[in-house]
Design a protein that fits this description.
single chain; 4-stranded mixed sheet; 3-stranded antiparallel sheet; 18 helices; about 10% strand
Length: about 400
């Protein structure tokens, strides 16, 4: 009987060859839960702005694991003791950190499963996989939850300078073509060290860290919070809201079984069953696109209009401002749109709405990026840096927006 070779390699356009370190990781990659990530776009609907941004969560998870392999190698070289079990836990935790993302990643968070974020669903998937793999993921889950005594292990997975952020900045920059997001991940990893089980960055890497934080800020404004991506994602959320509303009123809605299941059932973290998890595991971008293609011909004006906006990329207009938009502006537009299309004022909220976006490249309230100075003292990167712009990057910048259909007159 032939044995499957489980020590596979993936050819990645950014790092070259990514190796699967062992048979357990191979089996996890092969699992249907993980293979679903091939059908979940990493940057949501950003491909409507950047046509190349069609890469997936599958790409990202493997890339983040590759970076973790590099980090483990560097830390061991510097004398940090990492056991085989701990190494494996790091690989599994970073590989599965985003497994709970729903269709179009962040675009549909809280839309399909209300009030449950993707991290919580990732943990549900990990616990289920742990049962299937006879407890082999227990240490990885402990690390992921921040319950393991060696703090640096969680910091490598989730912090202000982790493998997740390093890969998505480099990858999203590459696929979108936004060059400002590119970072020197090799140097950042080479500068890592551990002191008293806490992750630190050697002082000579400070300029690479500054570049990393600046790249993160620019990627948020230029890609993740780009106004067209923003309006596309909000329109998608509102389309699903409308479909749910119609379904609850008894109107026939055509869509896939898994999508209909979550539109008909209110699932919370407390009542998230194995059936819910298996149904969620069948959901991906194609369920949503297929539904939109059907809904654009629906009798309901709101549902069909919103679906057409996304399918044909004929999106609403967005205005950004540093100040809040007056309520009267929204009211005037709503009244005009309601009259033109014979809608109630309540229904115009699907087309005319406002909100705010926030960008903060570095938070002084969160786990800091610690700089190990030559005299072995440790300092927050903002204090250690001679760049004044790092202090500016740690202040949140808020912008207000208003969205409205193009046919309405300019504000």
């Amino acid at each position: 009987m032939s044995q499957t070779n489980k020590l596979k390699i993936f050819n990645d356009p950014i790092y070259g060859f990514i190796t699967i370190p062992n048979s357990l990781v191979y089996d996890l990659v092969q699992h249907p839960y993980f293979q679903r990530l091939r059908r979940i776009s990493q940057m949501g609907l950003s491909y409507l702005v950047y046509p190349g941004a069609h890469h997936t969560r599958f790409h990202h998870a493997l890339g983040a694991m590759h970076m973790m392999q590099q980090a483990v190698e560097v830390l061991r070289f510097k004398g940090v003791t990492i056991s085989k079990e701990e190494e494996n836990a790091l690989y599994i935790a970073i590989l599965l950190h985003d497994i709970g993302h729903g269709p179009f990643s962040h675009a549909m968070e809280h839309s399909i499963v209300e009030e449950v974020n993707h991290e919580a669903i990732s943990l549900l998937f990990m616990n289920q996989l742990n049962k299937e793999f006879n407890g082999q993921l227990s240490l990885a889950i402990q690390v992921f939850k921040g319950e393991y005594h060696r703090k640096f292990m969680l910091q490598l997975i989730s912090s202000q300078l982790d493998m997740d952020r390093m890969d998505y900045l480099k990858r999203d920059s590459f696929y979108s073509g936004v060059a400002e997001g590119n970072i020197n991940s090799d140097r950042l990893i080479q500068m890592m060290n551990v002191v008293d089980d806490v992750l630190v960055m050697e002082e000579k890497g400070i300029y690479s860290i500054e570049k990393f934080l600046m790249a993160r800020r620019l990627m948020y404004w230029q890609a993740y919070l780009h106004k067209t991506s923003l309006v596309a994602e909000l329109t998608l959320t509102k389309t699903l809201q409308r479909a749910k509303e119609l379904l609850q009123k008894g109107t026939a809605i055509e869509c896939s079984g898994p999508l209909k299941y979550f539109m008909e059932h209110k699932v919370t973290l407390e009542n998230f069953s194995t059936i819910d998890l298996d149904t969620f595991a069948q959901l991906d971008d194609f369920d949503i696109i297929s539904a939109l293609k059907n809904w654009q011909y629906h009798d309901d004006f709101i549902l069909s209009s919103l679906s057409k906006m996304i399918i044909n990329r004929d999106l609403s207009k967005v205005k950004l401002n540093s100040e809040k938009f007056p309520v009267e502006v929204l009211q005037e537009m709503s009244a005009a749109f309601a009259k033109k299309h014979n809608l109630s004022l309540q229904d115009t909220k699907y087309f005319i709405f406002k909100g705010k976006i926030k960008n903060q490249a570095y938070s002084k309230d969160a786990e800091p990026i610690r700089i190990l100075k030559k005299d072995r003292t440790i300092e927050d990167v903002v204090e250690a840096s001679d760049q004044l712009n790092l202090k500016a990057l740690s202040k949140p910048v808020t912008k207000y927006f208003i969205c409205y259909p193009k046919q309405l007159s300019e504000i």
